[in-house]
Specification:
Elements (H helix, E strand, L loop, with lengths): L2 H4 L6 H7 L2 H39 L3 H15 L4 H11 E7 L4 E6 L17
């Protein structure tokens, strides 16, 4: 029997047909045909989860000092740029800005979009 038929790799159908009667291979081939779409879905899910994990690692490595440094650099350029462009940029970066007049504190909720647009997996139901 060819090595591919005995191993865990997917054999080519013509390799196995030569060695076994068609009737005995039919259930095996039908199982492969049924399971192949599931395998493809699982591969896609694994790739998606690996990408999410990489993004999570990158976000977890950002410190408060990193944010402060970026904001200081950003603020130094604001005076040199057209204010309309600044407003458009701010709207793209910040999801919401809330100012507390009593404490004079400002809370900024930043957008964390990665820029990758993917359809949700089949069967996904939002809560």
């Amino acid at each position: 029997m060819p090595e591919a038929c005995q191993s865990h790799t997917r054999p080519r159908r013509d390799e196995c047909r030569v060695l076994a009667p068609a009737a005995s291979l039919r259930p095996f081939l039908e199982s492969i045909d049924e399971l192949e779409p599931k395998r493809e879905r699982l591969k896609a899910k694994l790739a998606r989860l690996e990408a999410e994990q990489e993004s999570s690692r990158a976000l977890a490595s950002i410190t408060g000092g990193d944010v402060t440094k970026r904001l200081q650099g950003f603020a130094s350029h604001l005076t040199k740029v057209d204010q309309k462009a600044v407003k458009e940029l701010r709207e793209g970066i910040a999801e919401r800005i809330a100012f507390d007049p009593d404490s004079h504190r400002c809370r900024i909720r930043y957008r964390t979009d990665t820029g990758e647009f993917m359809a949700p997996p089949r069967g996904f139901e939002p809560r």
